[in-house]
Each structure stands twice: as structure tokens, then as C-alpha cells.
Write a structure and sequence with these properties.
521 residues; mainly alpha
Amino acid sequence: GGDIHRDLYRIDAKSKIARLDKRAATFSFLPRRTDDVVEEGVAAMEPGSFRRHFVQNKYGRLDQPGVTSSFLDFLDIYGNFAGEDLADTEEESAIVEEEEEEEEETRPSERTALLRRRRSSRASRPGDASNVKTFFTLLKAFVGTGIIFLPKAFRNGGILFSSITLVTVSLISTLCFHLLLECRRHYGGGYGEIGERIGGPRLRTLILASIVISQLGFVCACIIFTAENVHAVLEAVTTDLGTALSTGKLIAVQLLVLIPLSLIRNISKLGPIALLADVFILVGLAYIYFYDIASLASRGLASSVELFNRQSFTLTIGSCIFTFEGIGLILPIQSSMKRPEHFDKLLYTVMIIITVLFTAVGALSYATFGAETKTEIISNLPRTDRFVNVLQFVYSLAILVSSPIQLFPAVRILEGRLFGQNSGKRDPMIKWKKNVFRTGAVMTCGLIGAVGAGDLDKFVSLIGSFACVPLVYIYPAYLHWKGVAESPWVKRGDIAMMVLGVVFMVYTTSATVSVWLEGSA
């Protein structure tokens, strides 16, 4: 009955909206026009307006992504790693095709769904994440596996030198994050897109190549970490099995788990095991803090603690850079905010917190164990304690199941180069080619891990020096110098940052390789 009298509600406004060819969209990302306001006023008097208003207020705009309403939302950020849209699943391809067909066959009308989904790039859509959600998402992005290697980094450099280095790296990294965000405000897009708009396609390729190398390095480090810790647990529990299963064999066993997980196209499906992994990591870190503080209170400072270690201090720099591994998630997280203008303040706050957190775990653990500090600090915990054995084992499994998440951005970037946007939805050959490629990528990481096993601290330092330094220091400074900086002093500062980054990369990489070769000899 209400529909029959619909036109009665439009009598007063017909003269104002007669020029409209079709009904205005229920929602829009564009600035509101005067005629849109008139149309909304008319719609408010129509039957069904109360239901429409209730649904929109209760659920918000369903087509805008919130990054941390659940852990799956945080995991989806890896589908937009470094601002690049990396989603390419058979399910998503089918949805896109259906939406495109619907858009071609149907035009907006009175029967159009009120909250119809609209296909658009995730990088271009405004978000609805609050400041609190963004704060915790940033913490998730930065607190990763690198924190476990910090105590050995403090042993390599000495407690005083390592503390100063870690704080310095944090300050320089924060400055470079700021430069990258400034470029984002002027040019928009993701990390690679900014590089292409300022420096051309070659710079974008270079940036994406560094992302691929760094992510593959993280996967290799995770594989080595898992193998060495599981081997230590087996030796503590049973001598025979620990001797039979060497680190190399345990790496081969890991591949049997990682290869099937790497074939998963939709990263959100890894959400439950990734959430469980984060819980284990959190429990492990809490126990490490508890044990270190209790040991220092009862036994005091270890006698072998040094302020500065001349023999291996260069390894500390690369390891500290490796720890701040979250630059790839900076731009996606900012895009997901309801108020992106508040992102800088939140980022600085998070950097202060994690710098204190990282410095504390490195200094406390090194002060507790001294020269006995091992590559993975969890290996220093009492091996006769069954709780520690279980904790070390589940922590290793947590790192293992996190490896496919680290691998996802790398394989998607490489697949985009090799196969373009072709999906295996309708072409089984493309699908199997991608499966073979992902299997080969995992096996390559396993082979590199087998070569680097036993020198995990050197491997971590090498990845931090060679791959992470350009991403964090060199590229942002170059982009800001070429595309944003106007003042001569600002340009000089960008040049100084680039020079510092190049010196860091060349010196620490060569020094790490030299130490590695000397140790092998």
C-alpha cells in the first residue's frame, strides 16, 4: 500500500530532482552534492527509510574494510602488502566476474539493493578503522620473529653498543617511514605505485624485487629457526631421536607441511592457525621476560657481559634492521584508517613502545646468559623443564605455520610477473603452473635454509643488510628527494639519508659475508 502512494511523498521535491536521470546511489565515496541532499531528504519520507537508516547505522558501510575488527582482517592486509593489490584467488575471480556481469546487465533502479557491494581496489577505498584498532594493528605488524634474535645480536655487539644501535635504527626507520608517508600524500597508491609515478617502471620493479628478497629471507629464517629448535627439543626429550633427525632432515620434513599450505590461494584461510601461532609467540615472550627478570634478581648479572664486542659488532646492525620488518604494512594500514591524518602520531607512539620492548628483551636476555646467549633465546631456557620443552616445541610450530603468510606477498608478486592477471579458474594449466611455481619457491627456501643452518644470526643480519636497508632507508629517501622535497636543506637531508643507507648496506653486507666465510673456514 505504501508503494502505491510513493509519488505523493515526492510532490514538493519533483521540481528539484526532475533533472536527475536516475535515482542517486544509496551511498557514495564522492563529496555530497546539493541534489544528493535533496534526494536523501525525499528518501527519508519514503516507506522503508527507517529500515535503511537502521541497517546503515548498525553495520556501517559494508564495502569499506576495517583492518582489525578481527584477526582475519589483519591477515587480509597481506593481500595488500606494501599497498600492492595481491589478491588473486579462484573464489575472488568468480566473484569479480559475477559482479562485472551484474553491472553490465543491471542499471540502478528502485529495486537496486540498498547495500550493494561495489568492486574497487582496496588501496583506493577509504577505511573505517578507529585509532585504537590501528594502534594494535601496527603492534601486530612490527612484533614478529625478529625479536627472538635480538639477544644474540646484543651478544655480537655488546650491551651498550647494541642498545645505542637499536635506538638509532628505530629513530632512522621512523624518519624514513615519515618520508614514505609524505610521498603517499602527494602521489597516492602503494609503495611500488609511488615508485613508478616518481621514478618510472624500473624503480617499481626494483622496489618489488627488494620486497620479494626480504620476504623470502624471512621464510628461510623461519625454516632454520623451526628446524634448530625442534632438534633441540628432541635432544632434550630423547637422545636417539634427536641424533637421528638432523637439522637438514627436519627442514625436509617442514617442506611436507609448507608446500600444501603454500598452495592456498586465499590467505584468510590461514587465519585460525595464524591466530594460534600468535598466541604461542605471546606466551613464549612473556615467559622469556619472566625468566630473565627472575634470574637477574636471584643470580645477578652474567660475568661475561661486554659493553662492546669488536669482533662481530657489524652483525648487530643488520639484525636490528631486520627486527623492524613492518614497512610493507605501513601503507595498507594507513589506507584502512577512518582518519588517516592521525596515523603519524600513532606510528610514532608504536615505534617508541616497540623500541623499549625490543631493547628490554635484548638487554635482559644478554645480561642473564652473557656469552652463553644462543641464536634463538628460547634455546637458552632450561632444557630439563618439561614446560620449557613444550613451549619451545609449540613456539617452533607457531613460526612454522607463520611461514606461508610471509611467503604470500613474494609468490604473488612473482606470479604477477610470470602469469599476469590470469587465473586458474577456467584454465587448469595456469593453475598447475602456479602450483609448480609455489612448490619450487618453497623448496628453494628450504635449500637456502639448509645451507644457512647453524649460522642463523649471520643469515638474519645478511637479509637485514642486503634487502631491508634499501626498503627502509634508500628508497623512501630517494622518492622524497625526487618527488616531494622542495627546500634545498630538505633535499640535502634526503641525499644524506640515501648515502647513509648505501653505506649501511654495502658495509654491513660485506662484513657479514666476511664473518660468515671466516666462521665456515
